[in-house]
What we know:
NST/OST; 367 residues; alpha/beta; two-stranded antiparallel ribbon; globular
Amino acid sequence: MAYRVLGRAGPPQPRRARRLLFAFTLSLSCTYLCYSLLCCCDDLGQSRLLGAPRCLRGPSAGGQKLLQKSRPCDLPGPTPSEPSAPGAPAAAVPAPRLSGSNHSGSPKLGTKRLPQALIVGVKKGGTRAVLEFIRVHPDVRALGTEPHFFDRNYGRGLDWYRSLMPRTLESQITLEKTPSYFVTQEAPRRIFNMSRDTKLIVVVRNPVTRAISDYTQTLSKKPDIPTFEGLSFRNRTLGVVDVSWNAIRIGMYVLHLESWLRYFPLAQIHFVSGERLITDPAGEMGRVQDFLGIKRFITDKHFYFNKTKGFPCLKKTESSLLPRCLGKSKGRTHVQIDPEVIDQLREFYRPYNIKFYETVGQDFRWE
């Protein structure tokens, strides 16, 4: 009887080793193939079965031929809710697609943002002209209508306000105009609460001329209102001006400015001369562009003087077939006012004007 000696088994025969290696490789390849087929991507790069993006990542040599017909999908980057693991390389996140059209009819680009700059005043000072002129600039997108958010519609909330804004790119400025903000007591605090970095533009004009223009506009809508002289004075003989009349009170610029300076430094407020806007529109708009921190794109080549209206208009551009002037309500002939009344009002405004010049460091030469 032969006894088997217990001990260390010798190495397997070469043929047997090759068979074991082949079986192991085949098993691994089949497993990988099954997993890949379960997770193959559809046309949108998402798994039909698992509901999440899956891709074929470098199959082994044994399964390469079987998998070569399988379609790989793009590798997705990490989403904001699923950050990549520490130490892993960051993957690029595709930019969102936007559809629709902007004011020029081209595809919409950008995002609706709260305005970084506001034209806050003053009524009948030339705010519409500044708005229309600055909209020519490619780095500015402005709301065409007056939303009156910070005076009449504040209760609607910032989300409502933002929804009104045009879409802008990161490199563009969002701007809106409502000239009644300047004389609204609550407006400075509300704007500050939105953003303390908001840039403010105030278009001012000789307060006497501004008051007459204001009255002329009101008269066109309400022909039965009292005369300009009757509304301007409590006692004309004594020269007592009625400061409760809004057309007079708006022109007391320095009083309204005090409210703004409680929240914003003077460097954040730019004052445009309504008079120079007519005689030198390119110069005034150049200073506006400097204040906004954008290049001087709007120059003399954009303007021509309309003798009928008495103020500058925009020339024809590549995107416009006709020159663009302000509407019929702009440049209307003012009502005739007794020169003595004008002199009395000039004397009334003189101390307010001087204080305004000193505060803003600019002489508008209204005397």
